[in-house]
């Protein structure tokens, strides 16, 4: 058995940013136009008027201040309200593969590894551009990596589940150097015309290099243990798939083919699930909460992270102990905890322990206990 280690991480951040004020201005223009166009039906009680959104609500309900996206022009056009991303032809790289190439390149540079030394690529994300051929195999080819590659999807827990899969293969010896990439184009499956959730998501791609600890060429984090758990719930759901159920009126524009959530229920049900999961994981590994120097939590909601951090440490964590990046990136699904890890881990000292933890649709929870080597 070999000891797996994280030897590199990288983040591709789209350069287009949408602030809350820009987002709210576009939404409110859309809502005003909708209300004007449907004035008669609204007055007759047949159509519900659209209420305005507000930046103050967004910050207080979520902690999100802005998001990076692959295309802001379409999202902010009240007549469009979705990203305008050019569909790629079959002989061009897919958008997710391009994002992954950038993040993987950064992660490999940090690890001091060449792409041809990689023998596993996992593309772990909550939505994929196509079912097959796997995006991961395309990334493998574009990078010039060897071995094999596959896609996996566990929604917001995709990256941590991917890390567990790669770490297990490194432990057993079936692979020697793995890349786990998480390109998340959340803007493509968000309904930007829905006030309750239009502020939630952003786009990004993260990548992690895992290899045997004995092969590490520089700073690294030993993966002491990983733990994944799932419990079925409909409270975060996306019905987009190959079975195109039509609405009774035959309309193609089906709201449930994008992200849909019961936000309050998610809050209530996921918090105890995650807190208990982390407590049990630490207990089973004989690690006291006091030993944890850092929590890199899933980045969906600041109040959620504050609750979990306090529950795990038994006190309010300092911002250094539990860094948040969601104010800048919003919820980037599975990539969020990895962005936090990538941006806030350099200062840890050998022997310092930390925990990466993601949670979300499924429900799913994945935790990765690491120690600076
Ligand atoms: N602007 C202004 N007001 C808004 C609004 C907006 N954009 N969206 C909702 N509101 C209003 C609602 O109409 C409601 O008004 P009411 O009290 O008069 O009915 C009020 O604000 C509260 O709405 P609610 O949806 O209950 O907000 P919330 O406090 O639960 O926060 C979330 C919403 C989504 C931020 C929060 O539920 C959340 O983060 N949940 C978990 C998210 C999560 O982790 N999901 C996993 C995805 S991977």
Describe the structure concisely.
Helices cover 33% and strands 22% of the residues.
CATH architectural group of the domain at 222-372: 3-Layer(aba) Sandwich
Q: Please report the number of helical segments.
A: 11
Cα(first) to Cα(last) distance is 18 Å
The oligomeric status of these chains comes to single chain
Q: Identify the CATH homologous superfamily of the domain at 222-372.
A: Thiolase/Chalcone synthase
How much helical structure, as a percent, in the residues? 25-40%
Q: Kindly provide the name of the CATH class of the domain at 222-372.
A: Alpha Beta
State the shape.
Answer: globular
Secondary-structure element order, N to C: EEHHHEHHEHEHEEEEEHEHHHEE
Biggest sheet, in brief? 9 strands, mixed
Q: Could you list the spans in which at least 5 consecutive residues all have pLDDT below 50?
A: none
- How large a portion of the residues is in β-strands, by DSSP E? 15-25%
The strands making up the biggest β-sheet line up spatially as 5-4-6-7-1-8-13-12-11
Radius of gyration: 21 Å
CATH topology of the domain at 222-372: Peroxisomal Thiolase, Chain A, domain 1
Average pLDDT over all residues:
96
Bound molecules: coenzyme A
